[in-house]
Amino acid sequence: MASKVSKGARNREALISAAARLFWQRGYHGASLADIAGEAELPVGNLYYYFKSKAELALAVASGFSQDTQDMLDEINAAAADPRKRLQMLATRLAASQRSRLTYGCPVAAAVRDFRSDAKAASDKAAEVFTLIAGYVSAET
Question: Which spans in 80-106 are helix H?
Fold first, then answer.
């Protein structure tokens, strides 16, 4: 039997997804909470139910980046035993998102930079993505 995702969990994820997209496209300071709520198709008041501040929302976005990266590395590890094959798979996965980065740049690098002034914990969490990838590559070589 498939498990149901609660409406609250769906709303929270919609807000995180919308924030990630708008922070990437407009920058942290260029995306208002009202913009994010509108993009998530939720009333702005609902945003405050899930996140006390824009900085807390930024931390959720950065945590998602970090978790997605760890999940990707775990999938690659499970898919291949040969370190060279794993590195090829990593390069392929990273290259697959290259096209979307041409317009707005790297969303993780933007998060590290943009979150730094008002959401330091979120900036540090986003930077973990680079630490994960660098650690992975150095362990494979």
Answer: 83-96, 98-104
Residue type, 141: T
pLDDT score of 3: 58
- CB–CB of 66/132 below 8 Å? yes
Q: In this structure, which amino acid lies at residue 133?
A: I
Contact between 28 and 58 under an 8 Å Cβ cutoff? The reply is yes
User: Under DSSP, is residue 13 helix (H, G, I), strand (E, B) or coil?
Assistant: helix
Of 75, 78, 64, 70, the closest CA to residue 125 belongs to: 64
Neighbours of 41 (CB within 10 A): 9
Q: pLDDT tens digit string along 50-66?
A: 999 999 999 999 999 99
Contacts of 96 (CB under 8 A, 6+ apart): none
pLDDT at residue number 51: 97
* Contact (CB, 8 A) for 12 and 25: no
Whole-number Å distance between alpha carbons of 59 and 16: 10
